[in-house]
Design brief:
Elements: E1 2-4, H1 9-14, E2 39-49, H2 56-71, H3 73-79, E3 87-94, E4 100-109, H4 112-124, H5 135-147, E5 152-162, H6 172-181, E6 185-190, H7 206-214, E7 221-223, H8 231-244, H9 268-277
Parallel strand pairs: 1-7, 2-3, 2-5, 5-6
Antiparallel strand pairs: 3-4
Helix pairs in contact: 2-4, 2-8, 3-8, 5-6
Length: 279
């Protein structure tokens, strides 16, 4: 599991999209026995936080970021570096453990027209906000979606964005580990554009929380957003990396830290909620 900052984006992309392809987390030969028309390079789930801690401006910029990324020349160029040159994508919004809403049903992107159609559908959906933050609920909702679509990806990826820790539903690590066990990769987009506030149950070091408690699977990574003007750039970078199957640059981690405990408690959100509301 790795973390990447916006400052390293140019270095990552300049290294070459094809040369940097990560090993697929699904065995390629399995696709040989499937309908070629249904085979895609990646089945990608975009899981987007719409809890009340996200203000309306953040929600709008987040939507715009995904739409612009899908229409970008770099994304479309990257799309064609894969074995099939197409991906399957779905987009849903989440809040509490039982609150998930699919905005974009599974669709294939194989070029500018289909990318534009997907971006338009995402942008046309009305914005909404809801209570609580259940990252585990989002993961548990996402995993069955892979088996409910007709496509067969060489990789299966869940892209989770959010601005706070899990405070509802089962512990996030249980959901993460169950997903990874099924061959799913989870990447994270922690949003840290506001000062942590007790009223919105934010935490410091949300990037550490995402890295240690949320993401998982081969080549999983975190792209952190720490300023509003980097919002769209971060979403673009993350989407391009996921489609290309890129791994972030390897970090040098001392041997003694390889098995370290999480730097942030993976139950910090539940504790804050308990301390504040007593339930």
């Amino acid at each position: 599991m790795r973390w990447i900052s916006i400052g390293t984006i140019a270095a990552v992309t300049a290294a070459g999209m094809v040369a940097g392809l990560a090993a697929p987390n699904r065995t390629p030969h399995l696709a040989d026995h499937l309908d070629d028309s249904k085979t895609v390079d990646v089945e990608l789930i975009l899981a987007v936080d719409v809890s009340y801690s996200m203000d309306m401006d953040e929600l709008a910029v987040q939507r715009e970021g995904y739409a612009q990324a899908l229409r970008s020349g770099e994304f479309l160029k990257t799309l064609k570096t894969g074995p099939t040159g197409r991906i399957a994508v779905t987009y849903f919004e989440w809040a509490a453990a039982g609150d998930q809403k699919v905005i974009l049903p599974w669709q294939v992107i194989d070029g500018p027209e289909s990318a534009d159609a997907v971006a338009t559908e995402i942008m046309n959906a009305p914005l909404r906000r809801a209570s609580r933050t259940s990252i585990s609920g989002a993961i548990n909702f996402a995993v069955p979606l892979f088996d409910q679509n007709p496509y067969h990806g060489l990789r299966r990826v869940i892209d989770i964005s959010g601005d706070g820790p899990n405070n509802n539903g089962e512990p996030v690590t249980l959901a993460r580990d169950a997903a990874v066990e099924k061959g799913v990769v989870i990447n994270g987009l922690p949003i840290m554009v506001k000062e942590p506030s007790y009223s919105t149950m934010d935490i410091e070091n949300l990037d550490y929380y995402y890295e240690d408690c949320v993401i998982g699977g081969p080549g999983s990574f975190v792209v952190t957003i720490k300023s509003r003007d980097k919002f769209k750039e971060a979403i673009h970078t993350k989407l391009v990396m996921e489609v290309a199957g890129l791994r972030p640059p390897e970090l040098v981690v001392p041997v003694a830290e390889n098995d370290r405990s999480p730097r942030v408690s993976c139950l910090v959100g539940e504790k804050i909620w308990q301390d504040r509301w007593g339930r």
